[in-house]
Automatic annotation (TrEMBL):
UniProt name for this protein: tripeptidyl-peptidase II
Keywords assigned by UniProt, alphabetized: Calcium, Glycoprotein, Hydrolase, Metal-binding, Protease, Secreted, Serine protease, Signal, Virulence, Zymogen
Protein species of origin: Suillus subaureus
Region of interest (Disordered), residue spans: 186-210
UniProt-listed Enzyme Commission number(s): 3.4.14.10
CC terms in the record's Gene Ontology section: extracellular region
Bias (Low complexity): 198-210
UniProt enzyme class: hydrolase
Subcellular compartments: Secreted, Extracellular space
Any GO molecular function: serine-type endopeptidase activity
Keyword Heme applies: no
Amino acid sequence: MRYSLTACFTLSLVVASLAEPTFGPYNVHEKRSAIPIGWSYTRRHESAATLPLRIALQQSNIEFIDEYLYDVSHPESANYGKHWTAGEISRKFSPSEEAVSTVRDWLVENGLESERIRVSSTKGWINVNVTVEEAERLMNTEYNVYTHVSGQEHVACEAYHLPEYIGTHIDFVLPSVNFDVKLKGRSGSQPEPGRAIGQPGVGTTPKTTGTISQTVTELEQCDQYITPICLRALYELVYEPVATEKNSYGVVEYTPQAYLQSDLQMFALNYSTDLLGKEPVMVSIDGGYAQTEYQGFDYNGESALDLQYGMSLVTGKQNVTLYQTGDMVEGASFNNFLDAIDGSYCTFEGGDNYTVDSQYPDPYGGGYEGPEDCGTVAPAYVISTSYGYNEAELTPFYTARQCAEYAKLGLMGVTILYSSGDYGVAGHGDYCLNPNGTQSSTGTIFNPTFPGTCPYVTSVGATMVKPNATVFQAQPEMACMEVIYSGGGFSNYFAMSSYQKTAVDYYLQNYPPDYPSDIWNSTGMSRALPDISANGANYVVAVDGQFELVYGTSCSSPVSGAIFTMINDARLAIGKGPIGFINPTIYSAGFAGAFNDITEGSNPGCGTEGYNATAGWDPVTGLGTPNFPKLLENWLALP
Ligand SMILES: *[C@@H]1O[C@H](CO)[C@@H](O)[C@H](O)[C@H]1NC(C)=O
Ligand SMILES: *[C@@H]1O[C@H](CO)[C@@H](O)[C@H](O)[C@H]1NC(C)=O
Ligand SMILES: *[C@@H]1O[C@H](CO)[C@@H](O)[C@H](O)[C@H]1NC(C)=O
Ligand SMILES: *[C@@H]1O[C@H](CO)[C@@H](O)[C@H](O)[C@H]1NC(C)=O
Ligand SMILES: *[C@@H]1O[C@H](CO)[C@@H](O)[C@H](O)[C@H]1NC(C)=O
Ligand SMILES: *[C@@H]1O[C@H](CO)[C@@H](O)[C@H](O)[C@H]1NC(C)=O
Ligand SMILES: *[C@@H]1O[C@H](CO)[C@@H](O)[C@H](O)[C@H]1NC(C)=O
Ligand SMILES: *[C@@H]1O[C@H](CO)[C@@H](O)[C@H](O)[C@H]1NC(C)=O
């Protein structure tokens, strides 16, 4: 057979590209440091087996998100308060045509016929069914079968590579290094409170020291018993909301955590009669409901605390929205919640990770069979969540994707608060990091919590009234060192945002922590937390028909959320917008003195004394606790 010279040339080019794609250097795109606990390598995967390859494309303009957010959130910006609509956000960030076509062309050039390649309607995904052999060649990797101790198998690789010019368009590829499997075999067993794989709340429920026998009414006893009146006195929160039809405050709970209306009413009777007969406005996400089947502090403590204090401080006039997320079988994660309040997030940066996030409708049966909530729920202006992960439990990709979503919510004018954790410099469950990246109770490396390490949320630490101090004296509070320690420190994943640079530099220069640089991120370049704090000790909470004493940053977040909700009320009442992402504002010079500086106490963990609370910002209590009148005055002065 003979061809013309031109044809022959063309043919050899095709052959060459099929056999050995020549697309510049390959870079490692993702790599796993260890096989997750409970799994072991079994065998190489069969080369003829099919893999449903899902390629997550990178969003456009995501690198400018910090800039966009500052533009609407920095008090000195001309566009302060000019928040974006959901449509504007979606148009700004969806993947570019160039990303889609570059990746598609690369697949075609590697021998995958274009009829096999499907681009999702959102352009977030490129899907193609390939053989293991094709995938291995494409990404210069090896696929293996791993087996869980339960017998369940999972296909994954240790690392994969992409040509440099492709990697810049791709977030990640599935299946690959991740173990995004939900283990089966849950039916019939009692759902563990917040301990299912990947559920938020692992070790994060507040702590209790037991029930209270005597009557608590005294404002003089706030060092032993915190009630709403103590918090009003500490933060000078004297405010009756007037713009309640325009305003909203959301508290997020993850099933099986649930509140009991009888507890809310018991609390109302003793401490907040304006809540008599009131319920939170329940919004069910992914089959969430206030279950009553399982009771006890571990099921009811968190929700009881969040709602009793959140609702009391905004008064009975202001409705509080309860975002009850996840069913009894699968539970849910932050991403499930975020999917519900922002339809563009369901597919954003490739979609959820089912190791961490629950899949709806429940693929295993027995759980919520309805469709996943995706953009079905309106976000409140302020959203408080008292659950969390350790940053190290999640991958940088996963956390970056979720963090960008918090920035988008900020762009839309939503204030996002997360508790900073209850174990000082250690992570939830008192776990610290080992040099190889794993976590254990014997680890020595500080272990910060996520989402607090995301620079686009406001992380809330905990304080307490000093023993024998009264709320009437100056500086009555210190860092919480009773039962819990305020979570704080420096991220290993996220760079510092400029809003906190001056404050954190001041701390690092004046109080340089004397710890070796291999146990904390001492670069001075990473996101530092918490941002603020509020009381987190000795809360009197009605749980399962009894008053208990409760501790944790779980207390501080809903209390801070209530305070910011009242500030929104005052702004909405005079025709201004909500405060949105507050960090650039609260760290700005104009807000100096609007938080009560906490200068005593520390946050021990990982076998150390942790950091000290100091004058100015510190990685224990942040800027300090809210001073409502000053915050109100400052925020009313902003456009
Ligand atoms: C891959 O194969 C599965 C099962 O046959 C099919 O449901 C799916 O649509 C295919 N995906 C693509 C992108 O062709
Ligand atoms: C999904 O999460 C698990 C656990 O954090 C992680 O090992 C895996 O790499 C993640 N997958 C992706 C695609 O981020
Ligand atoms: C709540 O009120 C009841 C009735 O007045 C009282 O007996 C009880 O001691 C109070 N509980 C607390 C913890 O204050
Ligand atoms: C508060 O919630 C209740 C119950 O859902 C509703 O009837 C009422 O209209 C709401 N009030 C405001 C001001 O939104
Ligand atoms: C990581 O290090 C810890 C302690 O240093 C050790 O116990 C653990 O086995 C190591 N894990 C892996 C996967 O190397
Ligand atoms: C608080 O006061 C009590 C009673 O006066 C006293 O016994 C206790 O030592 C004081 N505690 C502190 C920390 O000052
Ligand atoms: C410290 O934080 C920076 C920025 O977040 C990050 O690039 C760096 O890898 C971190 N260092 C360590 C030792 O984790
Ligand atoms: C905290 O303060 C104590 C007492 O002044 C000091 O010895 C210690 O070094 C400080 N710790 C840190 C991490 O700065």
